[in-house]
Amino acid sequence: MNARSGKNGKTPALRAFGILRGGHLAGWKLFQTVFLLAMCLLIAPANAMAANMQLTDQAGILAEEDGEAIVRQIEKMESATGWDIMAVTTEDAGGMDAETYAETWFDDYTENDSGVICLIDMENREIAVKAFGECRYYVTDSRRDKILDAGYEEITGERYGQTLEAMLAEVETAFEEENPKKNSLYDKDTGKVTSYGEERRGISGMEMAIAAIAALAAGGVTAGSVIGRYRLKFGGCRYPMEKNGSVRLRAKEDRLVSQFVTHRHIPKKTSTGSGGGGGSSTVHTGAGGRSSSGGSRKF
Amino acid sequence: MAVVSFKCPNCDGELVFHPRTQKYKCEYCASAFSQEELDQLLPGQGRQIQPNSGPQAGHAEGRQENTPVSERQAEEGNIYQCPSCGAQIVTDDTTAASFCYYCHNPVVLSGRVSGEYLPHKIIPFAIDKKQATEKFLDYVHSKKFVPKAFFNKSQIDKISGVYFPYWMVDMDMEGSMRAEGRNVRVWRSGDTEYTETKIYHVERAGELHLEDITKNALKKANSKLSSGVLPYDMARAKEFHMGFLSGFLAEKRDMGQAELAGEVRAEAEEYGEKLLKDTVHGYSSLSVRDCRLDCRKENWEYVLLPVWTVTYKGRDGKMYYYSMNGQNGAVYGELPIDYKKVWMLSGMVFLVVFLLGLAGGFFL
């Protein structure tokens, strides 16, 4: 039985990870869970039907407190980023490698374009991180290595909860430090390189509002200028001072009386882990047709 | 007060000043005379003195004079006798040159352009009525937001050449200015931005000279229209001669120096400060702390400047008034607006800016 904590329809029952731990549910509790889940699915809007699962411990390797900590961490990250963040463990990858399994899982449980999934695959003895949508510009190749390094350090000590926490922490760091506009995607299947600007082109509501205000101002100034000139509100004669005025200076003094220097610290906008020139994320398109960056590592 | 009418030395027809040739032209025999030629003509040649002329009559060359009909009429104001047909000419208080209502003979009221009202200078008309009409129509047709076919020649209600009175003031001033100049330099070193500010004490003192500060000297003149045609090229101004007024309307001043002195000095001080400020260079910003300007010498000259006034009855029934510089043809006056065209232009500007804004948002 899968152990899941849902983002949508966040009922206490679903969040109480301890109650939902895989393989240990009593019959009554199982009934309660299924009933509540069914209710949530009925009540939730259609687009939430395939909502992401924040934490799914199918392998049953996470301690209760670890699970709660991970859910809290994911919720915090999701509210900061607007992405879907998932943490998954499995002991049966269904014949897939860890990356493919993570991609398939993300495809199945999210409708959001952007998100990150961290996976512990006990069958293949592999950890994986996959980033989708906008997140690909944050999870660059160097970030992927850092995330996997952090996870690897913990998983080799069989600290599974800390493995996911460390991986998620590195994802959070990537969000804080990376400047996606400087990064690009390298599609290893096609060899195509795509910059953030090229792919993320679009017009936000704010941009539209600014354009409308500027356009209104320009239109208003144009009309005002024509009407003002025709109605003699401005214009007319100006005294030709350059031609009719002259000055013969008798005294001219320019004396420095004081000088001072002030300074301020310039806050760093971004400091990319992949250098000032921008990082690159190697991406490929999975079976579901969704492009993702990231990778996996055996342990 | 004498009424002067300029007569042709050849045929005794009336002489009028012709702007294109800058000569006096006889409307009847087409003779043309320059000012010098007219001045050189012997008495009796080119002038006629009416038998009923008063004591002032006959002392001007090439012109015919008449006194007012009676003192009573003069007190009632401004009734004169036409030297050509004897009809009464009724004028305003400020009229200095006009036409006889009956025979259309051009007359100059010499008393209004002599004595204290003798102009120091005059700029003669350089544009005649035909040119003025063409220039006016060219001007209004060049305006894109005037309703289509609003202006046409036949609708021009009245176009008159008028010499308007102005005061032109030259002023010498002693000026001093104290100001604070600032230079700001910004540079970065690592994560720190440094701003260096240098403050200077700036002082300037010297003699200032302003020429041709021009003020309208006629109360009834529309100040906007009378100042809208400025400036004139005063290098082409001539010594005043009554003959320049022949064939045009003219007004004498009814505003004296005392009335305008305050306004002129305020204007001169504004220009003076600007002149002193313009001598300061090389600062990011300049704040004037103190500026003193003392007038040392003023020279006021009373001048008559040529203005074509155009009265136009619009298709909307409204009367439109324009003034045109009689020297260079510059037109000034309120124009009718085709609001549909204005809104269309603003709409287009709105659309272009909006699309550019969206494109900027999309690509950047």
Overview of the structural elements:
- The complex is a heterodimer of chains A (299) and B (364).
- With 299 residues, chain A is an alpha/beta fold.
- Chain A is built from nine helices and ten strands.
- In chain A, a hairpin with a 5-residue loop joins strand 9 and strand 10 (291-298).
- In chain A, helix 3 runs parallel beside helix 6 and helix 5 (141-155) packs antiparallel against helix 6.
- The longest helix of chain A has 26 residues, at 205-230.
- Chain A is elongated and about 95 Å long.
- The relative contact order of chain A is 0.14.
- Residues 1-26, 40-52 and 270-275 of chain A have low confidence and may be disordered.
- With 364 residues, chain B is an alpha+beta fold.
- Helices cover 22% and strands 38% of the residues of chain B.
- Chain B has six helices and 17 strands.
- In chain B, the strands form three sheets. In chain B, strands 1, 5, 8, 9, 10, 11, 12, 13, 14, 15, 16 and 17 form a twelve-stranded mixed sheet that branches. In chain B, strands 2-3-4 form a three-stranded antiparallel sheet. Chain B has a two-stranded antiparallel ribbon with strand order 6-7.
- In chain B, a hairpin with a 6-residue loop joins strand 6 (79-81) and strand 7 (88-90).
- The longest helix of chain B is centred in the last third of the chain and has 25 residues, at 339-363.
- Chain B is flat, with a radius of gyration of 28 Å.
- Chains A and B meet through helix 8 and strand 8 of A and strand 11, strand 12, helix 4, helix 5 and helix 6 of B.
Short overview:
Chain A contains 9 helices and 10 strands.
Topology overview:
The complex is a heterodimer of chains A (299) and B (364).
Chain A: E1 4-6, H1 12-15, H2 27-43, E2 53-57, H3 64-81, E3 84-90, H4 98-109, E4 115-121, E5 126-132, H5 141-155, H6 160-177, E6 184-187, E7 193-195, H7 196-199, H8 205-230, H9 241-244, E8 245-265, E9 280-285, E10 291-298
Parallel strand pairs in A: 2-3, 3-4, 6-9
Antiparallel strand pairs in A: 1-2, 4-5, 5-10, 6-7, 9-10
Helix pairs in contact in A: 3-6, 5-6
Chain B: E1 3-6, E2 15-18, E3 23-26, E4 32-33, H1 35-40, E5 63-66, H2 71-77, E6 79-81, E7 88-90, E8 95-99, E9 106-109, E10 121-122, H3 129-142, E11 156-189, E12 192-216, H4 223-228, E13 238-239, E14 249-251, H5 257-277, E15 285-313, E16 319-325, E17 331-333, H6 339-363
Parallel strand pairs in B: 10-15, 11-14
Antiparallel strand pairs in B: 1-5, 1-9, 2-3, 3-4, 6-7, 8-9, 8-14, 10-13, 11-12, 11-15, 15-16, 16-17
